[in-house]
Amino acid sequence: MLPKNKIIHGDCIEILKTFPENCFDLIFADPPYNLQLPKNRKLVRKDGSEVIPVSDQWDQFESYEDYDNFTQNWLKECQRVLKPTGTIWVMGMYHNIFRVGKIMQDLGIWFLNDVIWVKIDAMPNFNGRRFTNNHETLIWAVKNKNCKNYTFNFELLKKMNGGEQMKDTDWNFAICRGPERLKDENGIKAHPTQKPLKLIQQVLLTASNKGDLILDPFLGSGTTAVVAKALGRDWIGIEKEEKYLKLANNRIQGYGNEQQK
Ligand SMILES: C[S@@+](CC[C@H](N)C(=O)[O-])C[C@H]1O[C@@H](n2cnc3c(N)ncnc32)[C@H](O)[C@@H]1O
Question: For residue 70, which atom of ligand 1 is closest to its CA?
Answer without folding.
Answer: 19
